[in-house]
Design goal:
Structural class: alpha+beta
Radius of gyration: 34 Å
Helix content: 25-40%
Strand content: 15-25%
Number of helices: 17
Strand order of the largest sheet: 2-9-6-7-4
Largest sheet: 5 strands, mixed
CATH class of one domain: Alpha Beta
Number of strands: 24
CATH topology of one domain: Adenine-n6-DNA-methyltransferase TaqI, Chain A, domain 2
Distance between the termini: 23 Å
CATH superfamily of one domain: DNA methylase specificity domains
Shape: elongated
Length: 565
């Protein structure tokens, strides 16, 4: 089976083939399941799969001289009893030996026990914050957010000897295993490399002789979904020390514990390499997509444009390999449209009469035959600022369109906060279908956004918007597309934005001076129709890619669930 072709139905067959041949091969495992990294969450899923299979005993076999886990468990119980008798640990940690319902099968040489049988467990606490003498000493005091599923040797805060003597703090030893019990960090783990205390959100375990602390860490990490599930339901998810020590865990012989950890370390190293390779591939792909589309949108001559477009056509599958790149294609569609490269000119297009009033040095790019550069002021019959008249009432008045109603070149009129009550005296501020609304003040990123008003119902607009009503030479949707293009944004809007501390502005005079690459009206209409058609295709493509990515993510989940069931 080729990498990347694994399905949930195939998983048992693949696992049996990979793991059932007597000797385990990390390379064969990654070859068979490595294709999962292409999916969202695939790397995490592959790591989870590796840990789950490891604690099921699928990566190792018992060797002569290992002994049995039953013998090991008896030794653990004798050791614990001695510690309790010597009052070296608290004797209250009783763990039921009965009633274990194994969640999965394990090798015959292993046993099921409970976490409480394999070490001495204890949680931490927080010294009184009002006592400054408790903080700033030499002993680490860890919080749950500082656990990293690896090794930890530093902390944000420390405590003093006074706090250790006077507060209910457990001093944990190097090698102790930690697990977070509260909130968003529930199930996070770490191994201590130095002496340290913790707050009450962390539970620590000093493993008994015969229990490899790194194997204990591995089991806790593999069981994280279980602990998260146990903690669900409250305002803040949490588990307790009592729940942890009562949870069943698989216990292999000590020598095999070490071999399991070594196998997982090998796998994790290879998965890390896969992740790094995948990240590099995605970075290169993103740079290639950006460079290809920028070459198209910044081409200054027909020859440069043709070269860039040919490259895009030949590498389409690379450019559109995930949904996040569709936005770049939309941008390219607009650029093609306003440069006259989206359609082949037809004989019914009558060239716009008159002579250009701008020099070649002022225009962003050369125009096709029959087009003219014209200022927005020459194309407008009205350029008006909106009204500041507004009230928090919907009983009477005209709805006021505000800057937050302009979304992605479209008007979103589902949320209207204000109405203007005295609009009767300002009939010129009523919008007409085809009016353009331009956002003149906001953050730098939002200033210059435009949309077309198409409603038949009465609306007005706020003072921080500018309304542009066009003459018969310009189609509103075409002008709106130009304002949404990369060229207009970078060459005419951004250089003319006035920046202040927390605000950016663009006034009506500058707006009238923006140059528009204007084809004949008939061609404008065809361009608008083609753009809308292509944008719909982009929307459909984006939705399809998202569905594919969602299916891939669900496949990762299904693969893991199939193996841990």
């Amino acid at each position: 089976m080729a990498a990347g072709k694994t399905t949930a139905m195939d998983v048992p067959e693949v696992v049996d083939r990979v793991l059932g041949e007597g000797t385990f091969s990390v390379e064969k495992f990654v070859e068979s399941f490595g294709g999962l990294v292409e999916a969202a969450g695939g790397i995490g899923g592959l790591r989870t799969l590796a840990m789950q299979l490891a604690v099921q005993g699928r990566f190792t076999t018992c060797e002569t001289g290992d002994g049995t886990a039953a013998q090991l468990l008896e030794g653990l119980r004798r050791h614990k009893s001695k510690l309790v008798s010597a009052k070296s640990i608290r004797g209250g940690q009783t763990v039921s030996e009965n009633g274990i319902d194994p969640p999965f099968s394990i090798p015959a040489t292993w046993v099921w026990t409970r976490f409480g049988e394999v070490g001495d467990w204890g949680s931490g606490s927080t010294p009184n914050r009002s006592m400054s003498a408790y903080f700033g000493g030499k002993t680490l005091w860890l919080k749950s957010g500082e656990l990293n599923d690896g090794r930890v040797s530093t902390s944000e805060e420390t405590i003093t000897e006074k706090a250790l003597k006077e507060c209910s703090l457990r001093l944990n030893n190097p090698g102790d295993v930690l697990i977070a019990m509260y909130g968003a960090t529930i199930g996070k783990t770490a191994i201590l490399e130095v002496e340290a205390t913790t707050n009450q959100a962390v539970c620590a375990c000093t493993s008994f002789p015969g229990v490899f602390n790194e194997y204990l860490l591995l089991v806790l990490r593999a069981f994280k979904p279980l602990f998260v599930g146990q903690g669900a339901g409250g305002a803040q998810p949490n588990i307790s020390k009592e729940k942890i020590v009562a949870t069943p865990m698989p216990l292999p012989p000590f020598a095999e514990q070490k071999r399991i950890v070594a196998r997982v370390d090998q796998l994790m190293a290879l998965i890390d390499q896969l992740e790094a390779k995948q990240n590099r591939k995605r970075e290169v792909g993103a740079r290639f997509t950006k460079a290809s589309l920028e070459a198209l949108t910044t081409a200054e001559s027909p020859q440069e444009f043709t070269t860039a477009w040919t490259l895009i056509q030949s590498t389409w599958a690379t450019i559109l390999d995930n949904s996040s790149k569709v936005g770049e294609v939309r941008k390219a569609v607009l650029e093609l449209a306003v440069r006259g490269q989206l359609l082949t000119p037809t004989s019914d297009s009558t060239a716009i009469s008159g002579s250009d009033v701008v020099s070649d040095a002022e225009v962003p790019f050369a125009l096709p035959t029959g087009w003219r550069w014209m200022s927005l002021g020459d194309l407008a019959t009205r350029v008006d600022y909106g009204t500041s008249e507004k009230a928090h009432t919907e009983i009477r008045g005209i709805p006021v369109i505000r800057m937050n109603n302009i979304q992605g070149g479209q008007l979103d009129l589902t949320v209207l906060k204000y109405v203007a009550e005295n609009i009767d005296g300002m009939p010129d501020l009523l919008l007409a279908a085809g009016d353009l609304l331009f956002n003149r003040t906001n953050s730098f990123e939002l200033v210059g956004k435009m949309a077309v008003f198409r409603e038949a119902k009465k609306y007005t607009f706020a003072s921080y918007l500018i309304r542009v009503r066009l003459n018969a030479l310009a189609v509103p949707e075409y002008v709106n597309h130009y304002f949404g293009s990369w060229t207009c944004r970078t060459t005419q809007i951004e250089p003319n934005v006035t920046k202040q501390t927390n605000q950016a502005n663009f006034n009506g005079t500058k707006l009238k001076g923006i140059l528009v690459p204007l084809p004949p009206v008939a061609e404008q209409k065809r361009i608008v129709a083609k753009v809308e058609q292509l944008i719909k295709l982009c929307d459909a493509l984006e939705a399809a890619l998202r569905r594919s990515e969602d299916r891939a993510a669900k496949l990762v989940e299904a693969v893991v669930q199939e193996m841990v069931a």
